Amino acid sequence: MTEQKENEEQGGGLYGALAGAWTYAASSISSLLGYEDLDVVNPDGSKAEEARADSNDKRQIAFTDYKDYIGMDITSLVTLPVWIMEPYTILQKVAEIMEYTELLDKAASTEDPYERLAWVAGFCIGPFGGNERTWKPFNPILGETFELDLPSNGVRFLAEQVSHHPPISAGHAENDKWVYDIVSAPSTKFMGNSVEIYPVGRSRIKLRKTGEVFSLVPPNSTAHNVIVGSTWVDCHGNFSLTNVSTGAKCSLYFTPCGWFSDGRYQVSGHVYTEEGKKVLALSGAWNGHLDMQPCDAEGDPLPGSQTTRLWQCKEKPKGDKYGFTYFARMMNEGKGVAPLGSDSRRRPDRAALEWGDAGTAGAEKHSLEEKQRAERKERDRRKEKWAPRWFQPAKDTETFEGEYPLEDCPLWDFTGDYLKLARKAADTTDDCAGKDFCPWSYPDLHEQ
């Protein structure tokens, strides 16, 4: 492997969790092309008219040097600068689905099996409400973790970076009502003036009371106009949530944005019985809400029937520099917690960027990448194999209909060891942000 290629791969590239990948695809491409003035905008936003008036000459000229990448997966092709990043990591993006866990609690207590499936769908739609951010999160270091406790309903969550090449994150959450597992290994394809993002992964939810297991396959996304025009993003295509225990299914369609923003954000579909009969109509917007209503055999809502709001996107802070939700802000807080030494909040580059010191953030990011490179060389020298601390390759490799094949997304099992750890007391006046970050296998190697 050449030093240049090694630097490119170690530097990061396009990699994100299911709900966050497309938010930084356009910025990555502009960095790849050497065009640093590309503005990522919502076509309906206030910057749209200003962005449309900008000249595209620089991007068009730069594109002639990069046309050979059309059709390629650009996941590991780009070393990304700090100026396009948010003070957040991909593991935290993976954790954002935990914002609406009360919907899983509701599903667990619902007697009707099809309404129960609809509540699970509402939970799975939840993280799309925070997907309009246009900044790239930091790529996790191998062995990096992020942990989250939600005292309101007893949820404990842990994610770990279990592979560097290819980049794969694994996550687990549970409370006394349900268990949630995710493996995230997205890929991309550069199409010339757009980037296709494929949310390769595996999400499974088990309800403890009924024993039912649900499997989710989310829709694809596209970053449009990454070379010419005002850049904007869209989530589109099929969303499939299957109760693999019974065969019942929820199928939703994310309408692609049409001319003049026609259909933008729209979501519609149905809950089907095991025999394929439509019983519930679902509709809404992936950045706003999802509603449920009983329907007839043709899928039309029954006249006079009650409409139930399954999910409502929570209000977001106004004027937040990075477009963070309140939940995202909370996950960045380090006060009063004592997470593992490998936790994302302890990263010095992430913390420096949060404090507004981009120069220090860039230097710290480079330092972490150098340490990761040194770890790999030391591992090779010792002829040792790296293994995650909290997850392991799955013993049961059964996949369900519609899921990605094992060669694209391997299965990982949560070992449960994390839940056996004694809870660390923390001084509520202390702040772990940027302190004592250590995901390393050979910490003595980095002491100097």
Automatic annotation (TrEMBL):
Region named Disordered: 355-385
Basic and acidic residues composition-biased segments: 363-385
Transmembrane segments: none
Pfam families per the UniProt record, alphabetical: Oxysterol_BP
Xref: InterPro entries: OSBP_sf (IPR037239), Oxysterol-bd (IPR000648), Oxysterol-bd_CS (IPR018494)
GO biological process: intermembrane lipid transfer
Gene Ontology CC: cytosol; membrane
Sample GO molecular function, one term: sterol binding
Similarity-based family: Belongs to the OSBP family.
Protein name per its UniProtKB record: Oxysterol-binding protein
Biological source species: Coccomyxa viridis
Species lineage: Eukaryota, Viridiplantae, Chlorophyta, core chlorophytes, Trebouxiophyceae
